[in-house]
C-alpha cells in the first residue's frame, strides 16, 4: 500500500512533468519567431525585479512591480499572432494526414509549377518558409491563403497577372501571400550575371532558413537557394530530391 509520503512524491513528479511538457510545447510553437527574443528580454526583467527586491532598490522595484502587474495584457498584445497560430495548431489532428504524403504532395506541385514556368520562360520567385518566419523581411504582398497547386502558382506569375511581380510565400502547406518583395543580397562575391530575382532569393535565404525557388525569365533555368547559396540549372529529378530533403528536415515542425 502506497504511503501518503509516496503519494505526494508521485504527485510532485507528475506536476513537474506536466509543466515541463507545457513549456516544451510553448517553446516549439514560438521557436524561430520574434517571441523568443521578447521572452528572453522578459526573463532579464524578472531577474532585475528579484534583484531590486533583494538589494532594496525601491524605485526600480516599484517600476517593475507595476509593469508585471499588467504582464498578462502585455503578453496577449505582443504574442497575439503566436496565440492565434497555437490555437489553430491545437485544432488540427496530426494523425489525420500522413506527413510524408503531405511533403511529397507539396514537392510535386512545386516541381510541376517550376517546370511549366521554365518551359514558357516566365520568371518566378517562390519562397518556402521552414522554421524561421519570413514575415518581418517582406514588403507589400497580397493575402491569398489557398492550397498550393501548380495551376495557382503558374497563374500568379503570368505576365498579365496583377500580382506577378515579386514572390509567392508558402507557409505550412498554404500559399499565403503573393506579390511580395524580398531583401536583396549585398554579397559582393555574387556572380554579376545574377538578376534581381536571384539576388532577392539569396538575400532572404541569408537572413532566414527559407528555401527559395527561382525561375529565370531570360533562360528558363530553375535555381534553388538555401542558406545564402544558390544551385543553378536544376532539373526536375534533382529539384524533387533536394526539396524533399530540405523540407523533410523541418517536417515535424511544419505538419502538425
SSE map:
Blueprint: H1 4-30, H2 34-55, H3 58-69, H4 71-78, H5 80-90, H6 99-119, E1 124-128, E2 139-147, H7 150-156, E3 167-171, E4 174-181, H8 196-207, E5 211-215, E6 222-226, E7 229-231, H9 236-249, H10 251-254
Parallel strand pairs: 1-3
Antiparallel strand pairs: 1-5, 2-4, 3-4, 5-6, 6-7
Helix pairs in contact: 2-3, 6-7, 6-9
Roughly how much helix do the residues carry, as a percent range? 40-55%
Provide a count of the helices.
10
Write down the overall geometry: elongated
* Chain-averaged pLDDT: 78
- Whole-number total of structural domains: 2
CATH class of the largest domain: Alpha Beta
CATH architecture of the largest domain: 3-Layer(aba) Sandwich
Number of E strands: 7
Question: How many angstroms separate the termini?
Answer: 42 Å
Structural class: alpha+beta
Radius of gyration from the CA trace?
23 Å
Q: Give the low-confidence spans.
A: 93-97, 251-256
What strand line-up does the widest sheet have?
Answer: 2-4-3-1-5-6-7
CATH superfamily of the largest domain: DNA integrity scanning protein, DisA, N-terminal domain
Largest sheet: 7 strands, mixed
| Beta fraction | 15-25%
What is the name of the CATH topology of the largest domain? YojJ-like (1
Amino acid at each position: 500500500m502506497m504511503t501518503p509520503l509516496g503519494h505526494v512524491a508521485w504527485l510532485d513528479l507528475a506536476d513537474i512533468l506536466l509543466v515541463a511538457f507545457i513549456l516544451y510545447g510553448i517553446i516549439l510553437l514560438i521557436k524561430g519567431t520574434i517571441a523568443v527574443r521578447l521572452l528572453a528580454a522578459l526573463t532579464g526583467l524578472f531577474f532585475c525585479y528579484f534583484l531590486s527586491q533583494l538589494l532594496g532598490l525601491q524605485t526600480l522595484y516599484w517600476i517593475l512591480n507595476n509593469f508585471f502587474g499588467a504582464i498578462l495584457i502585455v503578453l496577449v498584445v505582443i504574442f497575439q499572432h503566436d496565440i492565434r497560430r497555437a490555437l489553430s495548431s491545437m485544432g488540427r489532428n496530426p494523425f489525420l494526414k500522413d506527413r510524408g504524403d503531405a511533403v511529397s504532395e507539396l514537392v510535386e506541385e512545386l516541381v510541376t509549377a517550376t517546370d511549366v514556368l521554365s518551359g514558357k520562360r516566365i520568371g518566378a520567385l517562390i519562397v518556402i518558409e521552414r522554421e524561421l518566419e519570413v514575415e518581418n523581411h517582406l514588403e507589400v504582398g497580397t493575402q491569398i491563403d489557398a492550397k498550393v497547386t501548380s495551376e495557382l502558382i503558374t497563374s500568379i506569375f503570368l505576365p498579365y497577372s496583377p500580382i506577378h511581380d515579386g514572390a509567392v510565400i508558402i507557409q505550412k502547406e498554404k500559399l499565403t501571400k503573393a506579390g511580395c518583395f524580398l531583401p536583396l543580397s549585398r554579397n559582393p562575391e555574387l556572380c554579376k550575371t545574377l538578376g534581381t530575382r536571384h539576388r532577392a532569393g539569396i538575400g532572404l535565404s541569408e537572413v532566414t532558413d527559407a528555401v527559395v525557388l527561382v525561375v529565370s525569365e531570360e533562360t528558363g533555368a530553375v535555381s534553388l537557394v538555401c542558406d545564402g547559396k544558390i544551385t543553378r540549372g536544376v532539373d526536375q529529378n534533382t529539384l524533387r530530391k533536394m526539396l524533399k530533403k530540405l523540407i523533410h528536415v523541418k517536417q515535424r515542425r511544419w505538419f502538425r
